[in-house]
Amino acid sequence: MNIANWLNDAGLRCPERPALFEGQRQVANYASFVALVRHRAAYLVNEQGIVPGDRVALFMKNCCEYLELLYAVWWVGAVAVPINCKLHPVEAGWIVENAEARLIFTDGGQVFAPDTPLSGCRELDREDMGEFASTASTQLLTPWPRQADDLAWLFYTSGTTGRSKGVMLSHGNLTAMSLCYPLDVDPVSAEDAVLYAAPMSHGAGLYNFIHVRRAARHVVPESRGFRADELFALASGLGNISLFAAPTMLKRMVEQARRQGYGGEGIKTIVYGGAPMYLADLEDALDTFGPRLVQIYGQGESPMTISALSRELIADRQHPDWALLAASVGRAQSCVEISILDPGHLPLPSGRMGEIAVRGPTVMQGYWRNEAATRQTLVEGWLLTGDVGFVDDAGYLTLTDRSKDVIISGGCNVYPREVEEVLAQHPGVFEVCVVGEPDAQWGESVVAFVVARMAGTLDESSLNTWFIERMASFKKPKKYVFRSALPRNSYGKVLKTELRLWLKAGADGTLVP
Ligand code: AMP
Question: What pLDDT does 291 receive?
Answer without folding.
Answer: 98
